[in-house]
Amino acid sequence: MANRVDYEEGHWFAVPLRTSGYAPGIIVRGGPRFKGGLGYFFAVRSDQPPNGLDIAHLTADQAIFITWFGDRGIIEGRWPLILTDRPFTREEWPVPRFGRVDLCDPEWGRITEYSQEENGRDLHIAETRVPVTDIAGLPEEGTASAGYVEVKLAILIDALEQSKEKDLE
């Protein structure tokens, strides 16, 4: 049985990337009562788990991945918490609109909006059917497992690093 780790909104953590290294994330809604929450994840790879100085400059608009996620990585200790005295305010970390493709009619999608209050997800505000082009650039609706986050974040960071290398050539 895994030990319970105390974490809450505003806590930063280190995600082990499946390729190599770690990248930081922050939980902006949710907590243990919800078995996870909404996380913002960043393209800052390091060999060791990041520290408070490594995350001091990061802002919501720098996130490369935003998703609802399960907390297994945190509670099992694979995603160590990052100690920081950085203050957290919800207004700086909004709950975005999410998009998904309608599997029955792929030319259409849905935009889902959640409340900025509570843990966000419990207060569903609206869901709107839109042309699939309208969901481009929105975070994907759904809940990601810890393993999915580790893989997806590694893929995104690897792609960004390869793109930067090609730009330098």
Q: Roughly how many Å apart are the termini?
A: 50 Å
Number of helices: 3
Give the rounded overall mean pLDDT.
90
User: What sort of overall outline do the alpha carbons produce when their principal axes are compared?
Assistant: globular
Following the backbone from N to C, one meets helices and strands in this order, namely EEEHEHEEEEEH
Number of E strands: 9
**Biggest sheet, open or closed, and with what strands and sense?**
6 strands, mixed
Indicate the topology.
Blueprint: E1 12-16, E2 22-31, E3 36-41, H1 52-55, E4 65-70, H2 72-75, E5 81-82, E6 98-101, E7 108-114, E8 124-131, E9 143-144, H3 146-168
Characteristic terms for this protein:
169 residues, alpha+beta, six-stranded mixed beta sheet, three-stranded antiparallel beta sheet, 9 strands, 18% helix
Give a description of the structure:
The protein is 18% helix and 30% strand. The protein is of the alpha+beta class and 169 residues long. The strands form two sheets. Strands 5-1-2-3-4-9 form a six-stranded mixed beta sheet. A hairpin with a 6-residue loop joins strand 6 (98-101) and strand 7. The longest helix has 23 residues, at 146-168. The mean pLDDT is 90.
Short description:
This protein is α+β, with helices and mostly antiparallel strands. Helix content is 18%, strand content 30%.
